């Protein structure tokens, strides 16, 4: 299963086949059974009333936690390019009564969300899938407030590759680094 996941969720394609998405979701369920996925959000600095975008949300495994962190007066947009991701998010909204979560299907590197709306965007385990980083990073830049911040995970690519893509865009300044993430602010 690991090889399967690596192929389809690796560097081959952005919108994976349905079967790959289903397998990936299943492997996440197994992983999350053994270690709490909520811990992944620690140190992200998500606050009450924030508008947050989970870009490339997949099956939405972080949404319950983030919905609680931003509270009733906050909002979480769950964006993905795969329609099965959106279906899965809709189910989670219903199951956990996540009234502040809005699912959004992306079209290429564009999603129907107003410009400069987000206090914070996080993009986890997906940057390596992006074929044209400039247009992707431009879209994130469009969505973020001028004083907002982006947390982006390397995913399956080395740190120097993530940094080169970000620096080449000339749209973002990297202000902090941790083992898996880069924190960026708009230029
Ligand atoms: C490996 S999964 C990670 C899901 C989630 N971020 C997590 O960490 O559990 C990558 C997700 O990114 C999505 N994705 C890939 N390219 C995308 C794009 N251009 N726009 C939005 N979502 C995208 C995929 O459909 C997939 O659901």
Overview of the molecule:
This protein has a 7-stranded mixed sheet, with helices on both faces. It has a single domain, classed as Rossmann fold, CATH 3.40.50. It has 6 helices and 7 strands. The protein has helices at residues 2-8, 18-34, 63-70, 83-96, 133-143, 159-169; strands at residues 51-55, 75-80, 101-105, 118-123, 144-153, 172-177, 181-186. The protein has 187 residues and is α/β, with parallel strands linked by helices. Helix 1 packs across helix 2 (18-34) and helix 5 (133-143) crosses helix 6 (159-169). The chain binds S-adenosylmethionine. S-adenosylmethionine (SAM) is lined by residues 9, 14, 28, 56-58, 61, 79-82, 85, 106, 109, 124-126, 129-130.
Uncertain parts? none
Strand proportion: 15-25%
Cα gyration radius (Å): 15 Å
Q: Tell the overall outline.
A: globular
Please tally the β strands and state the result: 7
Oligomer: single chain
**CATH level-1 class:** Alpha Beta
Classify the helix fraction into a percent range: 25-40%
- Structural domains: how many: 1
The order of strands across the largest sheet is 3-2-1-4-5-7-6
- The CATH superfamily appears as Vaccinia Virus protein VP39
């Amino acid at each position: 299963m690991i090889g399967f996941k690596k192929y389809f969720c690796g560097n081959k394609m952005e919108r994976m086949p349905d079967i790959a998405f289903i397998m990936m979701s299943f492997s996440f369920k197994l992983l999350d059974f053994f270690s709490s996925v909520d811990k992944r959000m620690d140190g992200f600095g998500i606050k009450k009333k924030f508008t947050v975008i989970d870009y490339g949300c997949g099956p939405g495994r972080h949404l319950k936690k983030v919905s609680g962190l931003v509270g009733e007066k906050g909002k979480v947009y769950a964006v993905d390019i795969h329609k099965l991701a959106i279906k899965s998010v809709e189910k989670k909204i219903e199951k956990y009564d996540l009234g502040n979560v809005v699912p959004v299907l992306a079209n290429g590197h564009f999603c129907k969300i107003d410009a400069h709306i987000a206090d914070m965007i996080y993009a986890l385990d997906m940057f390596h899938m992006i074929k044209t980083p400039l247009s992707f990073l431009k879209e994130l830049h469009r969505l973020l407030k001028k004083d907002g911040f982006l947390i982006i995970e390397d995913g399956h690519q080395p740190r120097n590759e993530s940094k080169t893509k970000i620096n080449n865009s000339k749209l973002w300044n990297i202000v902090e680094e941790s083992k898996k993430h880069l924190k960026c602010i708009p230029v």
